Amino acid sequence: MIPNNSIRLRLLLRPRPVTALLVVLFLAACAVPETRGPAPEQPPGAETPEPEAIPHEESREPEPAAEPEATPSAALALAEQAEGSRSEGNLERAAQQLERALRIAPRDASLWHQMARIRLEQGNYPQADRLAGRSLQLGGERDRSLALGNWRVIKAAREAMGDEEGAREAQEAIQRLETGVV
Asked: pTM of the predicted model, to two decimals?
């Protein structure tokens, strides 16, 4: 019986061309070749201009800022519900509704502002400060009333935290916005 076992063992260990071919094909399929096109040809003697050599148009007006995306109606409905919950004094419910709205429309500056106001009313001053800052980041100074509201939340939060210098900076920003000097 020993000879039979050795034959079986040799058959099992014998290299199989089909198996080797499948392994090679599998590995080749995993590789992604880098595709490169031919380099653009330049006529002899032509040089690529340096960036400074390209004339700039002095009279070009800056491009207008992109309009913010429209907020989905589901997020607007949740924001309305949150305002209702807030006016009823249910700040926790209002915060939950705004969190849902923010998952739907995370780039809506007014939703971040509304959440900042809720956190301020809840006494969560560090988060109110951060959320109003996020709203400012997203909305910039495009919507002056929103920016003013954000700076007012920031000022109140910083005053409540005892950050006098931060509150003073916020007050200066409020004054700049109120006078139109940005």
From this structure: 0.62
